[in-house]
Amino acid sequence: MADNVALSDADAKAKLKLGLFSYPVLQAADVLVYRYVFELATHVPVGHDQAQHLEFARENAKNFNAAHAPAKRVMSLKEPLLKMSKSHNDPRSRIMLNDSSDDIRMKIKAALTDSIEGLSYNPVERPGVSNLLSLMAYMDKSQRSEEQIADEGQALSMRAFKEEVSDTIIKGLADIKARYDYFSDSTQNQYLQDVMALGDERARLKAKETMVRIRRLTGIDTI
Prior knowledge:
The chain is mainly α. The protein contains eight helices and no strands.
């Protein structure tokens, strides 16, 4: 088929084969289907002429994830239609990893909800309650969904529900907070300094290697 053929050309359309369209899809499937078999795989060995097909596989994966496994977003406790952010002017709108148990309970207690009786997961009509259900689901050790948590908590008052949310978050962040507090201790200052120094040294070595290659490729090292 000629390089400059137009899609409106009837003769060109007649020459199109199913393989032209199905092969890239099948190749993408071959790459992606083993995602959970080869957990640490990071590279796909292909020839130069297959680069565009690999990009197609990447696009397939992105579209699939967007449609069927969208990224979870933690919303603001005070304005649940906005994502949780450190830049929000109200510190009660967010949970910080180093928040104390009392801080977390206070913030969840003040979280915006509604006056509708019972629990239900509906981000459009009940964004505040749905946000708290999502926070529980993210950290629930039983891996219950928002809907399951809502069904099991129908008898709870909003106050009791918020207490359960607080307990779940506090338990979920306990290990992280313990490590944060440990490394924030003044006695660990030298350890943190050593880690930063080691990272700085490694970064400089990698940057130097890259710049040597770039100068060699561009001819700058001969000037």
